[in-house]
Amino acid sequence: MFELSQLRCFVVTAEELHFGRAASRLNMTQPPLSRQIQLLERGLGVQLLERSSRQVKLTPAGSTFLPEARRIIKLAETSALAARRVAKGDTGRVAIGFTAVSGYSFLPRIVARARESLPQFELELFEMVTSDQFEALMTGQIDIAFVRPPVEQASFESKPILRESLLAALPAGDPRAERRSLSPADFDGRPLIMYSRIGAGYFNNMLTRLFEAAGVLPEYVQHVTQIHSMLGLVRAGLAAAIVPASAIELHMDEIQFREFVTVPEQPVELQMAWRRDNGNPALQSMLKLCGEFADHRAQGNASEG
Predict the structure, then answer these.
(1) Which residues face 126 on adjacent strands?
(2) Which of 80, 114, 122, 200 could share a disulfide with 93, CB 3.0–4.6 Å?
(3) Hey, how many other C-beta atoms are within 10 angstroms of the C-beta on 80?
(4) Is the model more confident about 169 or about 296?
(5) Which residues contact residue 169 at a Cβ distance below 8 angstroms, ignoring those fewer than 6 apart?
(6) Could you tell me how far CA 102 lies from the centroid of its own chain?
(7) What is this structure's pTM?
(8) pLDDT attached to residue 81
């Protein structure tokens, strides 16, 4: 029906009510300006401007159409700007997968940093175990996965994003709480809630190796997948448990946390993984933010040490 160039010619002429001044603003001569407005009027089937040798004024139809023309031009400009920003990675949508543990403290800090530094980004969050995140990366359901190592898929890139220590979670009245720190030997033959091999294989393998290296065999009274479920059982008095340090963010009452001494001191690792061929323009901006956050956190931990 009409072109944006015709709308711009009409809006400027309506503002100036003078073809000479309007043509000057538009860096064109008067004849093509008049032609553009005539084409616009023909397309709309109405007269927008009344012209005489002395003046130019808006018709009632022109007065009604002017704010709409401005709105259309503004919409076109903002739409083009939005498209360019998406193409440059300055805005867009990023889907993130995360394990339950990373959702206790790490992920909320990443989301807060993104809201501050990348306010135009839309983040979509999916809580998944590591194996499900790998599958979601492959199918394109998520762009970034916060997973437990190893990341062995050749089509994935990965970067260590977080390391943390382990804590012993003790039920109320446990005499071991009188000590500041505990070692694997303190759990030899003692009741312990353990991680399931399926669904929590990373922590199951880690603790199994730590106890075997120390020549220790706890009495596993229950196997669970989720850490919040494990802590619920600790609070109920079933037995103690070994949990990542971030679990303290759950603030469960009647549980006493003590340092669990290991070698290395921070055996729990979280990695950030993404597909090499991911074409989402917003991905690189989010990867940069997460990487800078991880580097800053690592420097802070090093200075504290």
Answers:
(1) 97
(2) 122
(3) 10
(4) 169
(5) 230, 231, 234, 240, 241, 242, 243, 247, 255, 256, 257
(6) 13
(7) 0.69
(8) 64
